[in-house]
Every structure is written in C-alpha cells, then in structure tokens.
Write a structure and sequence with these properties.
Two copies of one chain form a homodimer. In chain A, strands 1-2 form a two-stranded antiparallel sheet. In chain A, 21% of the residues are buried. The first copy, chain A, starts with a helix and ends with a helix. Chain A contains six helices and two strands; from the N terminus they run ααααββαα. By secondary structure, the first copy, chain A, is mainly alpha-helical. In chain A, strand 1 and strand 2 form a beta hairpin. Helices cover 73% and strands 5% of the residues of chain A. The longest helix of chain A is centred in the C-terminal third of the chain and has 32 residues. Chains A and B meet through helix 1, helix 2, helix 5 and helix 6 of A and helix 1, helix 2, helix 5 and helix 6 of B.
C-alpha cells in the first residue's frame, strides 16, 4: 500500500472515530490522565459493553492505547492520529481566515462610520 | 437545543463527512475554485448520482454550498465547520507537541553522546 493510501485510511479511521460525542468525551477524559474501562463507564451512564465498543473504535483508529498493567489495562490517549488530522484540516485555514479578515475590515468600517456620524451630530449641537 | 449540543452535532456531521477519501478529495478540488457536479464527477470516474450523494453529505454538514446560478449550481467550499473541527482538535495539540519535544531532546542527547565519543576517539589517536 502506498504512503498516500495508508495516510488516507488513517484519516478515514480518525475522522470516523471523532464523529461521535461519546468518543470525543472519552478522549477529553483521557486527556486528563489514563483511566480503566470502569472509570470511563461511570460518567457516561453507559454499560461496560457499550463503552468497550467505543473504546475499540478509538483503539482501531490508534487514538488510544492500553497500558501494560494486565489487571487494569488503563487506556491512555495517543495523539499521533490527531496530529495527522490537524495537518489535513490546516490546509484549509486560509479559507476561514480570509473570511474572518473580511469580517474584521467590515467591523472596522462600521466603527469608523459610527464615529463619523457621532462627530457630525456633535458639531450640529 | 443548547449551544453545546448544536456544536456537538456540528462536529458529528463534520467529522463524519471528512471520514471518506472521495469527500476529502472533493473539498480539495473545491479549494481551487467552484465547480459544477459535472466538473466534480469527471476526475473521480464516478457516476453523477454517486457524486451527488457525497455532495449531499458535504452540504448537510455545511462544508459546501450551492452557487446562485440556477442552471449550473456551482458548489463552493464553506470553511466555518472546518474552523470548528480545527478548534476541537487543537485542544490536544499539547499531546503531540510534548511527544515531539521529547523526541527533540532525545535526538539532541544522542548527538551530544556521538560528539563525546568522537572526541574520545580523537584523543586516543
């Protein structure tokens, strides 16, 4: 498989894993430190099998890994796939920044206009 | 619906839309300018209905919009959802940067070690 297709499959798996609020919340929880399946199941009011299913998706995407402790198997976050996803999205940064640059100039124009009007009113008095 | 859940649904839709190589390729194509369904179908060797299905997913996620020309309806990229997705991923930047910082220090240590060894060898001569 070529480098491009490996990277493309990685992106498929990463974005699919991130397209779910529970899985995003699990990552947010793991960002504050490793946790066992039990630890993770608690705040979500979900059964262990339901959480395990989400963990499997995150694990297959390489977004989490299992710790060495065979009893507890704490999960921890793995950021490499997020870095790749970030690089992909960053290519489009120009599109949202141009838009916000335009908004900035518009706001500036409106501000100048308001000031001009205020000055005129002041002079009329 | 709360602001958080609207934002969460937006992220679900954005990440799900990005989890497909054809849809990412369509966005890449639209980044270089607007294009009609016909224009988009050509390079992908896909039928128009197949492309239209992908366009619908991108459109529902707000990642593309239709131009005003009623005959051609050219699609163009809409970057706002990408900005939101970028902001979500950026929260985890520390995780991949720490890792690469560690790698940097490791490489530096190895370089110093190599230099020390080389100096020792030089002295022995």
């Amino acid at each position: 498989m070529s480098y491009t297709s490996v990277r493309s499959r990685q992106l498929d798996a990463t974005f699919a894993a991130l397209a779910d609020p529970t899985r995003r919340a699990i990552l947010a929880r793991l960002a504050s430190g490793g946790a066992t399946v039990n630890d993770l199941a608690k705040p979500f009011k979900m059964s262990q099998p339901a959480i395990s299913k989400h963990l499997k998706v995150l694990e297959n995407a390489g977004l989490i890994s299992k710790g060495l402790d065979k009893q507890r198997r704490p999960r921890r976050i793995e950021a490499a796939p997020l870095k790749v996803a970030n690089e992909w999205i960053e290519r489009y940064r120009q599109f949202w920044e141009v838009r916000y640059d335009n908004l900035d100039s518009l706001l500036e124009e409106m501000l100048i206009e308001t000031k001009v009007k205020a000055t005129r009113k002041e002079k009329k008095k």
